[in-house]
Amino acid sequence: MIIKEAIAELENKDNPVAKLMHTGVAFKVIILAFKKGMVLREHKTSVPTKLTVLTGNVKYSSENIIRTIDTFEEMEIPLEEMHTIEAIEDSLCLLIQGYRN
Fold this sequence. Notes:
Elements: H1 2-10, E1 17-23, E2 27-34, E3 39-43, E4 49-55, E5 57-62, E6 66-70, E7 74-77, E8 83-87, E9 91-98
Antiparallel strand pairs: 1-2, 2-9, 3-8, 4-7, 4-9, 5-6, 5-8
């Protein structure tokens, strides 16, 4: 139900919606829901993170990389790199954060 909740909550928001879907000892799975044109403000991650687009497409932008990520594509987010994520169209993404065994 977390994905449906994120999509429903998005209707009343001006910013992307992030919802924790699952957590474990050393990992998290997060749903990100965007309307077209929404931007996840500039930030960085200190934990290994993979971004997967489930529907739509988004643009990852940093000082070193500008990349469009389409439906069913994924990208490893570089550690400690300031970046933004912008929805090119309505989009639903999965963020998987954590350390490998």
